[in-house]
Design a protein that fits this description.
Shape: globular
Helix content: under 10%
Radius of gyration: 13 Å
Largest sheet: 7 strands, mixed
Length: about 110
Amino acid sequence: QVQLVESGGGLVQAGGSLRLSCAASASIFNAMGWYRQAPGNQRELVAVFTSGETTSIADSVKGRFTISRDNAKNTLYLQMNSLKPEDTAVYYCKIVVYGKSYWGQGTQVTVSA
């Protein structure tokens, strides 16, 4: 069983920055990424590693968010810059191991106007 623990969320003003971390209990693989869900909305893709160093970033956050990882620490990161109120959501990390998806509990990000 893979365990994922997100951290780094909080309250920030518009234009500010946050870095989210996702620590895994086991080695992370290429199929990993960040998702978010705002109240009343569906969970949506934010940024993912597809294969190798290839990444896919949602249009809504391109140029502002960067996904990275540290395999030695089994940790996935999401650097969020120029935050906007519409970025307010619970952010979740996800990895796929042997074809099965594992989700963290989520970390709240709130951006004030």
